[in-house]
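Design request, tokens follow.
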């Protein structure tokens, strides 16, 4: 087996790209998902496996798009804008923006759930939990408004703090697994309903896989490195997700696991005592806070990128003295605040709120994913003279697989979530018409 060549100076090699994929995917999802999946028991593992295969198909779509369009910045929005034009580009930018701030709501809920390890009042009072969640998102917004950037060393430290407790509990859980606790389908739900539902939940843990599709100019031998790093990173994340789900289902009865607001911390306490409970809880809080801080600025930059292409209103381009697109940042956080206030005021538990908002974020992200699967073929059709018939075989396979997977997972999100996702997308149409009028007037 040949050793991979050393990456050129200033370029990203295979291991750095793989680390980027793993680091961006493993966020809050793995910390709360075992509780959400407990009602499905061992059947959730089928969902994990199918989701992993679908995620690999989608990751390969982004990898191929990155090599075909090496100078296009903006990820899914840029690719779809290239393949399908202005209207599709607007819809995807709008949907992706919704996914970002809805996802940040989920990160906030997860962080507050694990803060309950240290402040039990947060587990008992929706008012206290809601106020803490809203305070946390505005704190992170304030930090980002100052243009704060995480250094490489801080990123490494927070990643280690995140992964060590996860790996420790997972390995110990597999060693001390109680087979009596593991039930295949404890609530006897029809598999045709249970498996798509688990897929919709588990896909949340893979959101961010498109971050591997960095511009090809920043990667050493992008036509080889990006696809390999994407698949390898997705496999590493999938292995940790599946192993941790099995471990926790084998450590705690299904009913106990489903009711846990901090399943990894509770599992650690059952294994090693109170100190482990607090150690894992601290790791989860740091992980959620770090992920929230990293994604928060994105919710300002996506509408700003669309505004520069004259697809979003121009005010989204406004920057503060620190160079941060402040209008998009503040408006997004206001929407997160409204979503959190509505859900906490409704009396839902932390896990119920987490499930709803991750399903909403996932459903609105799956539309860009489905569009990207077809955008790859659209771009190839636009350049059809560059390709031989056999060059179409693998893109047709993973684009088709990714597209079908995205549609099936949208179905698994449930009628309520799909309804909200469609309504939020349709709410963008007046914005598009207004912007179209502005562009015509200024022409």
């Amino acid at each position: 087996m040949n050793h991979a060549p050393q990456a050129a100076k200033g370029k990203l090699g295979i291991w750095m790209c793989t680390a980027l994929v793993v680091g961006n995917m493993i966020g809050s999802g793995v910390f709360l998902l075992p509780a959400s999946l407990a009602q499905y028991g061992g059947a959730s593992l089928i969902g994990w496996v199918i989701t992993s295969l679908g995620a690999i198909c989608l990751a390969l779509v982004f990898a191929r798009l990155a090599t075909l369009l090496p100078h296009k910045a903006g990820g899914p929005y840029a690719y779809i804008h290239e393949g399908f034009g202005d209207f599709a580009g607007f819809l995807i930018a709008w949907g992706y923006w919704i996914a970002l701030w809805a996802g940040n709501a989920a990160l906030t809920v997860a962080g507050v759930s694990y803060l309950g390890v240290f402040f039990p009042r947060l587990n008992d009072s929706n008012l206290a939990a809601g106020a803490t969640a809203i305070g946390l998102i505005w704190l992170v917004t304030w930090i980002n408004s100052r243009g704060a950037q995480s250094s490489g060393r801080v990123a490494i430290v927070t990643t280690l703090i995140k992964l060590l407790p996860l790996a420790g509990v997972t390995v110990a859980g597999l060693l001390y697994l109680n087979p009596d606790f593991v039930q295949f389908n404890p609530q006897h739900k029809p598999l045709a309903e249970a498996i798509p539902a688990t897929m919709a939940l588990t896909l949340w843990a893979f959101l961010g896989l498109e971050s591997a599709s960095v511009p090809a100019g920043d990667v050493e031998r992008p036509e080889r490195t990006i696809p390999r790093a994407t698949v390898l990173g997705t496999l590493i994340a999938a292995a940790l997700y599946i192993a941790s789900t099995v471990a926790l289902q084998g450590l705690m009865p299904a009913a106990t696991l489903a009711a846990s607001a901090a399943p990894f911390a509770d599992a650690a306490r059952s294994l090693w005592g109170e100190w482990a409970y607090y150690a894992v809880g601290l790791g989860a809080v740091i992980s959620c806070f770090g992920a929230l801080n990293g994604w928060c600025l994105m919710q300002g930059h996506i509408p700003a990128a669309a505004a520069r292409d004259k697809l979003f209103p121009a005010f989204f381009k406004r920057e503060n003295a620190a160079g941060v697109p402040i209008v998009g940042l503040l408006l997004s956080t206001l929407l997160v605040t409204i979503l959190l206030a509505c859900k906490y005021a409704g009396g839902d538990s932390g896990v119920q709120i987490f499930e709803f908002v991750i399903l909403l974020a996932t459903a609105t992200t799956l539309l860009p994913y489905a569009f990207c699967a077809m955008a790859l073929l659209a771009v190839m059709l636009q350049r059809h003279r560059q390709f031989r018939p056999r060059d179409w075989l693998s893109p047709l396979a993973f684009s088709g697989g990714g597209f079908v997977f995205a549609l099936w997972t949208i179905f698994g999100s449930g009628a309520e979530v799909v309804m909200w996702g469609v309504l939020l997308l349709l709410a963008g149409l007046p914005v598009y018409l207004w912007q179209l009028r502005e562009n015509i007037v200024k022409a």
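Comment from the thread starter after seeing the answer: thanks! The chain has a mean pLDDT of 81.
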